[in-house]
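Technical annex B. To support the medicinal chemistry partners, we prepared a structural model of the target in complex with NDP, based solely on the information shown next.
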Amino acid sequence: ARAEIGVTGLAVMGSNLARNFASKGFVTAVHNRTQARTDALIAEHGGDGDFVPSTSAEEFVASLVKPRRIVIMVKAGGPTDAVIDELAPLLEDGDILIDGGNAKFQDTRRREAALREQGIHFVGCGISGGEEGALLGPSIMPGGSKESYDSLGPMLEKISAHVDGEPCCTHIGTDGAGHFVKMVHNGIEYADMQLIAEAYDLLRRGAGLTPAELADVFAEWNRGDLDSFLIEITAEVLKQVDAETGQPFIDVVVDAAGMKGTGTWTVQNALDLGVPVSGIAEAVFARGLSSLAEQRAASKDLPGPAAAGSVDDRDAFVEDVRLALYASKIVAYAQGLDEIIAGAEEFGWDIDLGAVARIWRGGCIIRAKFLNRITEAYDSAAQQPASLLLAPYFTDAIAGTQDAWRRTVVFAATNGIPAPGFSTALAYYDGLRSERLPAALIQGQRDFFGAHTYRRVDRDGSFHTLWSGDRSEVATD
Ligand code: NDP
């Protein structure tokens, strides 16, 4: 046995990850259920590094030095369980099984607990960056035991993306923490994409910019606060011209957004944890609405605003939309980080938010320059801010967007252009800063119909008003 790391599941992600390990000088064992994939990898890239191919799980396990380190890179769900069931009996105390797929963190917790009984370390490992990231350096979010990270971490750090010399990989927390954080990463990605799409829509429909002009606008934005991978690729997509029709590429694509589920999971878990991730939720819902082909077709004649407002100063409008996007994006990150804090508390993880922001600076889909500022917000603070919005840098940043943000939301509403991401972010912001919320009225209603009781502003305890009696108040505890 001489392989230092093994990868099983050699579809696009697994083979690229294996090539990444091999390119960093690790002897890499490779295996796939269907032999043809292993053969193809060796035929095409066998010369790029030291690979040890196997034809069976037994041979694969035997090719690894102990403690064995095996990355599973197969379809998430049942297939991952099938591979674990096949490998686990072949492993020994101290071996490390790593699941690099997009697993539900609850599945990771279950698998980790079961394998721990057998003395096997199970590391649920979030990997972001798509195919290219897997090959050239992804952002890696490993969970599992601290002990397993001691042996595995340095290898993962070596194959991860690097920013300012620092690896985009850190031990996130025990059991399912890595997959939880990867899930929230994807939720933030949904929100970010939705916000960019809204900016595009407002500028195109509202101010009449062409896709080619918009490509230039996004390329310009990518040089400032919004500097990020998603803004960069937005400019590329908008620049693209369809070879067949000569139309802008964007105009020949069906406007129904697909999804694979991680955004939905982020929202489902936020609901369970009671965290208002409204920006992420709106992003998931907006994709859902876009796919309602029948309802959308039937709704074309629903009335809209009578007179659309026009844009007099195009440059000023572009700047307003940029600022609205920036503010809404900060809110989406604040909400996502709140979900991580709530998850950590619920599941007993010790998660360093500054480190999470640090490893998202490179390799992953939401990589962005402003993540440096998030890291600083958590690293430099003597006390963690109660919300990202309360970290001084971001409080200032949002203060600078105020008027533009509000004008943009008003413009969208007045002109009948949907901007659910911008609007919900602003409503969240105003909700947080309101000294009094109408929740008091909701408490009154709840007490009225269900005797759910309420608390008073002027003394402790819970109270109920005898609504169907003489409407006097009684203390209930
Ligand atoms: P797929 O999700 O398409 O999975 C294909 C691989 O799974 C093949 O190697 C296949 O083997 C194997 N497989 C499927 N069922 C079984 C089974 N029952 N037993 C053994 N092996 C099985 O591949 P991807 O490379 O796209 O993704 C791999 C994982 O990485 C997924 O969990 C995905 O969610 C995650 N991921 C993907 C990203 C991406 O950008 N694509 C980004 C980040 C994570 P066979 O060849 O025999 O069919």
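Notes passed to the chemistry partners:
The pocket of NDP is lined by residues 9-14, 32-34, 37, 73-76, 79, 82-83, 101-102, 127, 130-131 (CB under 6 Å).
Residues 455 and 462 are 5 Å apart (CA to CA).
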